[in-house]
Design goal:
5 helices; alpha+beta; elongated; two-stranded antiparallel ribbon; single chain; 50% helix; three-stranded antiparallel β-sheet
Length: 203
Amino acid sequence: MAETLIGLIDPTLAWSAMEGLVSAKNFLLVFIGFSAVIFVHELGHFLAAKWCDVRIDKFAVGFGRAIFSYRRGLGFRWGPTLEEYRARLGEWAQKHRPAGEQAAEDAELGDRELARAARELKLGETEYCFNILPLGGYVKMLGQEDFAIDKSGELMVKEDPRAFTHKPIGQRMFIVSSGVLMNLAFAAFVFMIVFMLGMKSPS
């Protein structure tokens, strides 16, 4: 019986299956390594922007729609937290507007009103999310989009002291270069760990 089973197995098919498993493992390792490098790179931008007091709207791992997200004050949610965040801020701001302005429900809420609402409700300004395409990631800072189109169609720069575009050039250079600096520090750390643990190499 055993001889019959051995005879049925084609050595070339078995070898191809082994090669497939090895290549799948290598692909997975490359995918994890590449994702880790991008995550560390974006983490560098994030930490530098926080240090320079730039408002960060989103720190995302991956691209596309969020599978789950976290925001301080709201906790973990399936999908994004932005709509719930804006709804809570808008509701609080409308309730605490002066009596004459409460009737105008369609009036746009200013950045100061929304910032005050976020402070009072203890809601975090940054959404941390894991997106459906996990390769890569990004940090969305206020002012990074540079322009907002107003109703007349003119391009207006956002006038917010915490916007990336309104920071001194030295701070902007630091924020932009911090991703590469973080990658260098991460590479040095990983090499130290690898050589401390040991690795296979030809004699």
